[in-house]
């Protein structure tokens, strides 16, 4: 580790690259699990990018204007762990404080893939700082990088001022053959080309080997030509080990100002090992013997594990470290001055970083008046969304080509759409690309915008891979889904969600809201807007829902507790039966309550807009809302009954969908599938009679 | 309707096309709901294809060698309904008998989008004959068409013999801008190019208008260049109304023998109407006035609705009808002769058509011997799958690049992979394209092969859009998912399914199997193979599962009832507590049962490999397995607890996942997340004590 060891830059480059390869091999070998081949093949490219191009300060890995590096081929995580370790990236705590300790210690590397190591099997955002996005499910990383690049353009346009180029970061994503095959990456690449994201660079690590064998067996398209068709700049590096070629390609990205860039790099999986260019080296350790043989090829001491030659840490410090520190220092000085000149804008930038909202963000929220005819929750939500957006400048959103149907167009700030010529617009046209829409929204959230996107609830299925990542990364993306049930009507079963609500509720860490009327919409939005670490799903109706008269029923504030008593038996007294429901079915429950009252049966209506919130309430509150003594309970929801038993219990009944829907006007569907006051009344009456005999209380 | 009316073919062509347009406008107008614009724009192309090219006999819409027409832009269903009506397609019953009545009557057209009409909002397979695939969720139709085209190649190679070209059908899909944007279509197009499917023709109806506006706002890639990059033949029709150009393009497809063909057709949404080329005409009726104005443009009597001019039915009869009837008659004669020469092959073809299995298909299934160390269910399943495949020649399958991990390679018939040079292979390399893999499998099932495909359970999320269509269409695709839980281990939370089981169980019509040991694997496969109308999901472990000693525990036959008593308390007597579980957790329950027995607590272990089957059993059986009197119940599953309450009840407990998983070796994860015999024992003991006081039975 003596300074004089750093003499010939070429020697140091080679040494640094082989150090990375050695660590990757050793980490996988020690874990007896992992993916050594990809890191070994692409290490020279990742090294060159980090050491010579990336504007990233290891001392502050959350500096807002850092270049982003997304390892889309997340199985190559050992490569990232090596880089985070060797460059000395600092840890960051959950409150966005940079800590003194390293993000990845040598001990972490040695406990790769073991419980609690900061080097898990795949890159995990928020678990290890320096990870810009959770990756592993292929295609997601590149798709998120498109969202990040759009954010970069948006931030630059909103915040940069003459003499203050606060935001000009680039976004790099490293992707393999698998990423290139996934539909979500195709969708996102099309968007990036359309949007002319010249701050975006995908490095395609083409080793042409996947788990089943050579890509010749299934993937023979001309990827370069495909990206040219999308409108990208495409350049090729014929040999991943040729650092000069790699650097020239990265330079060509830097000088391209009108298109995103694809660098197609020909690499060799498991480079240097006896199993080079074979699937064997993809997903298992090389074995002790092959590790030693490979270390000999790389000039590494074959009996030393996790070997870091003298001077390597310093070498990284001199490269990415020094460059990043200087860039950050200059930026911070500039930002200080900027804050004096543009205090309001600086305040916005600062709040965004810690996911705070502006003071007074909810000033425009106001209750909706009672209205028996009512309003579709998509429409009330659209109004509330605009009321919030007016005060939260970085709340931006788009739709997968359904804005007019989902009612999510932001009319604020000119009400325009984000385009190359209009980079400060608040609306994004994602096209008919649900999966990319969700993934790009994740990328926007990772760059600290507050994004939503919208579609029909049925198409949440297309986006699940990305919705799951919102939850796993704990980023507060808002997924807005309208047309939430057989309420879709004539479009029929292909467009009528049934199992989607249950599917989303089953996902850990996701908050699913299905408000019953316009005032619940307001209260649900109030909760959602305040979320800092949890993604939310808003499930909204196409059809009008009556706005309850809150002077007669309980306040919609209860929505914030997930479920609440909307109304007790009109005649007073303890309820004989509980009617539990969400969304459009709450009004149905209210009607049944009246019918039951006429028969002398006391029904309580419980509105349950967010099960996850309700489950978090103290038992006392839950028992107050759903008294354990009342076992006559009817769950009513135009969705799969799956999951309702938790609240309804074995003595209760569930009025729900047990098949797919049908194509017909809603009224016909309601009677076909049994969502009528008479049916609810009948089921409730039968339950009460069963339990109490013919005479009811 | 006089014969002499049919004079000038050009006049009749124009009249037929405008008739279709008129019906589409009227149907949408009458329904006050639907999508008139697309049919009006693309009618000339669909007409030309049907009338002049399609080898399809309306008198037998399930003739095995018919050309397939998939309306991937399913919102244009009125176009298909018009064609099915005008060509006189016959209805087919669920047992594959062609009926005398028409598939689509004039009354059906007039009740478009009403309950029970055979003209629902989107094309629904099995509901209306002549519909080759359920479409509407964009991208699915084109992706299925790739599976159909692969099936066509496979069938030809397996069954055609010198002088008997039994299978040479072509597959056409009509797709819009939305289909082209969806990831699943990109994935499938890449496969089609790689596989050189020259029997596949996509017609791209490029009207460049989507719901949010002109495609300029989000979709400006060069689609033709993209398809060239995939290896397709691409040809352009500059004007959808130029029937000569359309015919020439379709001819060019017919003469292309090495590549799939994309015909890019420039069309005008809402052609002829006042709102032509605007999004207004996409998804709502034109309005009475505009309908009349448009009819004038088309020379249709403006005051007659659903007008079919004299001679039009006969004209279709002379075109597609006569050509189709001749082709089918020739085929049937040929097949008769073929059946004499190759009776075994003919028998296969006939059984496939009605989804029967060969006699003796399960002859090779045999029980696995008891083995405490056991075998991963992916491995036992792989063996059983091969045992079945040996006797079911049209059981074919593939994987989204995970065959070595999912253990689904078929070793039968040479054990090769399907490629242009090997069209009879039983294995398909779908590449890292889960969504297309599932959609293409749907297409293969629609052409009566018996397909499976495999991946990791976590990636079922990527394929949900297509899995749902398996269920909605009621086609028996087998979706095989391994790596079914935190049992994945070191790969960590991105690869560990949690909510996927619940999500799949919530889907109507889908059968989800999670067998506990090798013998349950056999029995589950026995059920799955026999399914004729239901898709199944097999959920299998990566890690070894002990093979229970069936001389000690109950027979695995019980798996066929969905859930069964695997073992009662070792000491005999009624159980104090029920341990309910599936898959890998059943062995855990068995261990806890022993621990509990040592404490004098009698535990029954219930294995529940298929909830859907169990829910269908008579109440008597269900109560026998889960006696209502025993409310101390523990549900144990390495998945979201969502849905378990149904069996466990409010007095029970659920040991499940409440968060995402973590990256670590399985043993560490089992104790971190509480899947240990001690924990199960503790929870069960507490429940029993709570209910019975400290002294237990």
Automatic annotation (TrEMBL), chains A, B:
Binding site for Mg(2+): 177, 207, 209
InterPro entries in the cross-refs: THDP-binding, Transketo_C/PFOR_II, Transketolase-like_C_2, Transketolase-like_Pyr-bd, Transketolase_bac-like, Transketolase_BS, Transketolase_CS, Transketolase_fam
The protein's enzyme class: transferase
Active site positions, chain numbering: 434 (proton donor)
PROSITE patterns tied to this protein: TRANSKETOLASE_1, TRANSKETOLASE_2
An annotated Gene Ontology molecular function: transketolase activity
Binding site for thiamine diphosphate: 75, 136-138, 178, 207, 282, 459
GO biological process, one term: pentose-phosphate shunt
Cellular component per GO, a single term: cytosol
Listed EC numbers: 2.2.1.1
Reactions the enzyme catalyzes: D-sedoheptulose 7-phosphate + D-glyceraldehyde 3-phosphate = aldehydo-D-ribose 5-phosphate + D-xylulose 5-phosphate
Domain Transketolase-like pyrimidine-binding: 375-547
Chain's role: Catalyzes the transfer of a two-carbon ketol group from a ketose donor to an aldose acceptor, via a covalent intermediate with the cofactor thiamine pyrophosphate.
Protein family (similarity comment): Belongs to the transketolase family.
Subunit structure and binding partners: Homodimer.
Protein name: Transketolase
